[in-house]
Design goal:
Shape: elongated
Helix content: 10-25%
Strand order of the largest sheet: 3-2-1-4-5
Number of strands: 5
Largest sheet: 5 strands, antiparallel
């Protein structure tokens, strides 16, 4: 699984792999609805017709994105809160 870290100029997208390494791919390779933070499943396949090439398919994984957002929210909720009300500096 890979996460779309960001979109850059010239139509490139930067993906992050599970180890935290980033690499650019053409944005045209991604699903049209892809957005920053989306999780992608990547499938590689050999060309069955003549075995001379291969292709890569990117698919959105909305369930994994939702799971990651839940984990982020849980982490945020565990953080200590500052004092409430007006503060004097």
């Amino acid at each position: 699984r890979y996460v779309i870290d960001r979109f850059e100029d010239q139509g490139w997208a930067v993906l992050e792999d599970p180890t935290g390494h980033s690499f650019p791919v053409p944005g045209d390779w991604l699903p049209s609805a892809a957005a920053e933070g989306d999780v992608l499943l990547i499938t590689a396949a050999r060309d069955a017709a003549d075995d001379s090439g291969s292709s890569v398919r990117f698919e959105l994984d909305p369930a994994e994105r939702a799971k990651r957002l839940e984990n982020i929210a849980a982490t945020r909720d565990r953080l200590k809160r500052g004092p409430s009300g007006d503060l004097e500096l």
